[in-house]
Amino acid sequence: MSEIAYTTNEIQKTPMIILTGPTAVGKTSLSIRLAKELGGEIISADSMQVYRHMDIGSAKIRPEEMEGVPHHLIDILEPTESFDVTVFQEKARQALEGIYQRGHLPIVVGGTGFYIQALLYDIDFNDQAQDEKLRADLEAEMLEKGPEVMHERLAEIDPESAEAIPAGNRKRVIRALEFYQLTGKKISDHNREQRSKESPYNYAYFVLTDEREKLYARIDERVDQMIKEGLAEEVKKLLEMGVQKTDTSMQGLGYREMLGYYDGEYSMDHAVYLIKRNTRHFAKRQLTWFRRERDVIWLPKQDFSYDEDRIMSMIHRELSKLGISAMND
RNA sequence: GGUGCCAUAGCCAAGCGGUAAGGCAAGGGUCUGCAACACCCUGAUCACCAGUUCAAAUCUGGUUGGCACCU
Asked: Which nucleotides on strand B sit less than 7 A from a protein beta carbon?
């Protein structure tokens, strides 16, 4: 028997399976089943599960739940370390390579659409185009002169971006300015180029969804569960470890709200309310993101009578259409 | 039964004669190095009826509903 556990029609393109969907929809359990049936390894596309010591709030899969399926990009950083798309991209590529070498099928699982996109389309973030100092300076200037002034400056050098980015979106205005100063090129041009790229992978992009009401109810339940499991304690420990409010890890849902509670800004009840509400907002945004991605295969649970077997057979059908299949051993 | 107060979008809430602030929720969207981020867009004719007035959510009367107090 060959070491190759998959076959693909497009020889030049390597296969990639993506399983995503809004938070709390049930990606994890389906991913394990999928990985076991296909002989796959999982690459987590989640901006918070990369952090150690952040298990409850990030709804991280527990080791025993993995059922032996290899997982990548989980627990790889300390909460004080920063993380962003480019780091994700780099690490995910490395993981991919290993998976291919082992003759396994990569299954990208997670809800961070931007990360998935970066990996799937192999977006070039232009490695040289970042400068912490410059960014800090721009931020200081923005604070001093106000967002309108900065936005006007952007309008002069890159009208297209200025039109696309509202002045209120300081973060993006700064990035556009930073990009221009560092490369001498307009970020709008760069983005256009990147956007027209074709994926180097032979991929199947699955989006698991459910009815909005059901999803929201599940989110509420899950948050209550997190509280019961000790989310507050988890955050307290992170604080004791010296994690700062401004760290990337503390931007995560559940964490930043708890920080507000510990800062005495509001009650625990209010923190819980905020976590639920913000998580609902997040789920909605995720759905918006997936809607505009190309070639996604929707898996609305209600259309399958919530029967995982039926969802699995749909997945297998789609995979065989694409010529991606497991070489059963 | 009587008296008083109130009645504005799913919720909270401005307005007090000149043609309906705002916040939250909800929905839609943007996104190419912080993305579980950041940001953008969308909603009512003011309980109902009849008056006064050039003009009423805003004044008057009545109806209905709620709250408070009294008997």
From this structure: 24-40
Distance in Å, residue A217 CA to nucleotide B46 C1': 34
Q: Which residues of chain A have pLDDT under 50?
A: 1-5, 8-10, 327-329
Judged by C1' against the alpha carbon of A195, the nearest nucleotide is B32
Distance CA A122, CA A140 (A): 32
Q: How far is the CA of A248 from the C1' of B3 (A)?
A: 63
What pLDDT was estimated at residue A2? 39
Q: Which nucleotide is nearest to A87 (CA to C1')?
A: B33
What type of residue is A237?
K
In this prediction the ipTM stands at 0.90
CB of A247 within 8 A of CB of A80? Answer: yes
| Closest nucleotide relative to residue A54's CA, C1' based | B36
CATH of A132-195, one of 2.20.25.90, 1.10.20.140, 3.40.309.10, 1.10.150.20: 1.10.20.140
Output the distance from A193 CA to B63 C1' rounded to whole Å. Answer: 68
> What is the rounded (10 degree) CA torsion for A232, A21, A161, A177?
40
User: What is the second-level CATH architecture of the domain A6-123+198-211+286-326?
Assistant: 3-Layer(aba) Sandwich (3.40)
The nucleotide closest to A139 (CA, C1' atoms): B34
Residue A11, burial from CB neighbour count under 10 angstroms (0-12, 13-18, 19+): exposed
- For chain A, the domains span 6-123+198-211+286-326, 132-195
pLDDT at A213: 95
> Tell me, in Å, how far CA of A260 is from C1' of B16?
40
Global confidence as pTM: 0.92
Q: In this predicted model, what pLDDT tens digit does every residue of A298-323 receive, in sequence order?
A: 999 999 999 999 999 999 999 999 99
